[in-house]
Amino acid sequence: MNIEELTKTQIILLTLLVSFVTSIATGIVTVTLLEQAPPVVTQTVNRVVQNTIEKAIPQEGGKTIETVIIKEEDLVVDAVGQSAKSLVAIRDYANSQEGAFLGVGFFASKDGLVFIDGALVNESGQYVVLSNGVSYPAEVATKNEKGFAILKILPVKNEQGNSKSFSSAVFTNTAILKVGQTLVSPSSPDGISLNVAKGTISRIQEATDASGVITDIDLLMNLGKASSGAPLLDTEGSVIGIVLVRDGEPNVVLARDLKTALQSIATQRE
Q1: pLDDT tens-digit map of 84-132
Q2: What SS3 string covers the chain?
Q3: Residue pair 242/200 in contact by the 8 Å Cβ criterion
Q4: CA 20 to 30 Å from 78, out of 9, 103, 193, 209?
Q5: Which pTM does this prediction carry?
Q6: Count of CB atoms situated within 10 Å of the CB of 64
């Protein structure tokens, strides 16, 4: 067949056929490459897709679609900002009038329950929780076998004479965690300033039964002893778990276990 003998209509149809076949081939190659790519690469691609938002701007005679790209950096900044007021520092005045710095933690409830590394506290301590520049006396409410503890701030009244309400953390659904997902761990060593570590999930372990419940995660994140007791957050600012550093290695107790401990305390109060 001589292409010079084709009519204009035949040339147009041939062009459309070639374009169609090329697009299908490109799609197949792209899908194949993504299936063979490491999880971190696919997570990055998914985040770019998910964070592209179409915003409709009404205009006279119609509307214009503006594509807004939300950077991961902006999500991290927002996540840290949302959690800032729930972060605390803990000091022990049992053996020192100046108070010895113990570690960091975060509010678990509006009535003053605080998560902290259980290895740092005991029943004989005289603890003070530092939050946003204010000191609150506290006592140990419970120590959990998972390695964390919960402090209870002693009753505090606000200016109106009502019980003070604190900014507590919000827990996430750990069932949706993915390898390669970005996480942050903010802490406040003095109850005012912020330290932030950023990393990703490197491994997820699920239960061996049919439930598929996530029981443990490993992190690619630079977390030292000073971060033990800090919350681990997703990019929406929700708590995934608490960081506990043991022998220089960060471990994570997931939100499911933290919520179970809070429910146990609530049951005891009833």
Answers
A1: 889 999 999 988 788 888 899 999 899 899 999 999 998 888 999 999 8
A2: CCHHHCCHHHHHHHHHHHHHHHHHHHHHHHHHHHHHCCHHHHHHHHHHHHCEEEEEEEECCEEEEEEEECCHHHHHHHHHHHHHHHEEEEEECCCCCCCEEEEEEEECCCCCEEEEEHHHCCCCCCEEEEECCEEEEEEEEEECCCCEEEEEECCCECCCCCECCCCCCCECCHHHCCCCCEEEEEECCCCCCCEEEEEEEEEEEECCCCCCCEEEEEEECCCCHHHCCCEEECCCCCEEEEEEEECCEEEEEEHHHHHHHHHHHHHHHC
A3: no
A4: 103
A5: 0.71
A6: 9
What would the CATH number be for the domain defined by 85-153? Answer: 2.40.10.10
| HSE-CB for 79 with a 13 A CA cutoff | 27
